[in-house]
Amino acid sequence: MYRQKAAQLRSGMVLAKTLYTERGDVLLTAGTELTPAYIDSLRRRGVLAVQVQDGLVDDVAPTDIVSEQVRATLVSHVARVFEVVMVISNRYLTGPKDRPSKVDEALRRLGPRELELPPEGVSSF
Predict the structure, then answer these.
(1) What is the pTM of this model?
(2) Cβ(26)–Cβ(76) under 8 Å?
(3) Residue 116 domain-assigned?
(4) CATH number of the structural domain spanning residue 85
């Protein structure tokens, strides 16, 4: 198996690893033979490279630091966070204009404070 740039994919190549969408859903499974339509779709989606089978050591999979399942789950959660932020921001954009924002309210409650920094050369972690 080897990594192949999307611009160099050819019809008939076989995916060695499952591809997921930005939401974590399966796009194409490992073992799928690439067609011109699949290749075009991958390029339109912005996929830069994929793992393809080479016929030599296809049973040897490179070890990723983060599994595809964990990666897909995290991507799904991050996408959901952005959806929630978008809904909240749309509510404020369409709501009454004279209402203070939650940020303004939080700043008012906190009041003026000096930024507490560690002494120079000391880690803040």
Answers:
(1) 0.54
(2) no
(3) no
(4) 3.90.105.10
Number of domains in the chain: 1
Asked whether residue 108 is assigned to any structural domain, the reply reads: no
Dump pLDDT digits (tens) for 10-51: 999 999 888 888 777 888 999 999 999 999 999 998 888 998
CA 53 to chain centre: 24
DSSP E strands: which ranges in 31-125? 49-52
Q: Which two tokens stand for residue 7?
A: 């611009």
Q: Exposed e or buried b for every residue in 38-59, given b needs 16+ CB within 10 A?
A: bbeebeeeebeebbbbeeeebe
Host domain of residue 67: 1-96
- C-alpha distances (whole Å) from 69 to each of 51, 62, 82, 118 are 16, 15, 20, 39
* Nearest residue to 15 (alpha-carbon basis) of 63, 66, 50, 55: 50
The DSSP output letter for 44 is H
